[in-house]
Design brief:
- With 301 residues, this protein is an all-alpha fold.
- The protein has one domain.
- 75% of the residues lie in helices and 0% in strands.
- Helix 3 packs antiparallel against helix 5, helix 5 packs parallel to helix 14 and helix 6 packs across helix 7.
- The chain starts with 6 loop residues before the first helix and ends with a helix.
- The mean pLDDT is 85.
């Protein structure tokens, strides 16, 4: 039986998860080795985003979240919402696909570009499908027997987290467009999708809040004599899924607004440059530059 979760244990309860640690090490080392191979400077903000993404995954798997994830419903909800909403957002902001395309061998990079420009890629990244991919992990995990199965099979934890993170990455990759994407949907579509995603989070949170106990037989078998009872534990977890999901989505909305404003400024600058190029320096009086009035007001020579 895991020791009671206290404020002190939040900071001192750690465990070693070798698979997650190895995966994070491979991704971070590979990322920075690719950055070193670049011939041009790489934005520091992207490297920091990669490190932050790695740190969130380590917290989920190695800290008290990993230690108590099989004991408390609400702690596991924190792990799920972090893996779905925060880690992939940070990873998408690190522009991993751009880095891969710039440093990979030419044949491989060319193959990736062809896949990215294919009709299948455009269909699979259609906004409604991407939104469904973000909501699907929560629906399957909390509204099917999958949740209880994952609790009884700890070996499935890391694959489950990777699948959840992958769904989140597809969402943020196609919405933020820091990396090249198969589609160029208007930014307003991304805002609409973020609204739909918030509604779905709320609906799932309400179902978990007022619905029957999830994996009750598993939690009852733990005979936990501390912390909230099963119903309160699940209610707190539902709040994490609902409110925590909305709060975790705020950085995405901010990043999306920044991208939208930058795109609008670039478009305005491009239009101004085109107009300036079309205009020729005017000389003389204004009617002398008007074809319809030039002959009427110009004295014959």
């Amino acid at each position: 039986m895991t020791e009671p979760l206290t404020v002190a244990r939040v900071f001192t309860a750690w465990q070693l998860e070798p698979v997650a640690l190895l995966l994070v090490a491979v991704v971070v080392i590979g990322y920075f080795r690719a950055v070193r191979r670049l011939s041009e400077p790489w934005p520091v903000s992207r490297s920091l985003a990669l490190l932050a993404a790695a740190a969130t995954h380590l917290l989920v798997t190695q800290s008290f979240i990993g230690v108590y994830g099989h004991t408390l419903f609400w702690v596991r909800a924190v792990a799920v919402i972090t893996t779905l909403m925060i880690t992939p957002l940070l990873f998408a902001l690190s522009a991993p696909l751009t880095l891969l395309l710039r440093t990979a061998p030419a044949p491989f990079a060319g193959r990736l570009r062809r896949i990215g420009h294919s009709a299948a890629a455009r269909v699979l990244t259609f906004p409604l499908l991407v939104t469904a991919a973000l909501a699907l992990p929560l629906v399957l995990l909390y509204l099917t027997p999958l949740y209880g199965w994952t609790l009884r099979n700890p070996a499935a934890d890391e694959p489950l987290l990777l699948i959840i993170a992958g769904c989140g990455f597809v969402y943020y990759w196609t919405r933020l467009r820091v990396d090249p994407t198969p589609r160029e949907d208007p930014h307003v579509v991304s805002f609409a999708i973020s609204l739909v995603e918030a509604i779905v989070d709320g609906a799932i949170g309400l179902v978990v809040w007022f619905g029957p106990l999830i994996a009750a037989d598993y939690y009852e078998a733990l005979h936990r004599a501390w912390g909230p009872d099963l119903r309160l534990d699940q209610v707190i977890g539902a709040g994490v899924l609902w409110i925590g999901g909305d709060l975790a989505g705020l950085p995405f909305v901010v990043a999306l607004m920044i991208r939208w404003m930058r795109a609008a400024k670039q478009e305005a600058d491009s239009i101004d440059a085109e107009l300036d190029a079309e205009e020729s320096p005017a000389s003389g009086l204004w009617w002398e530059n008007d074809p319809a009035l030039r002959e009427r007001f110009t004295k014959p020579s």
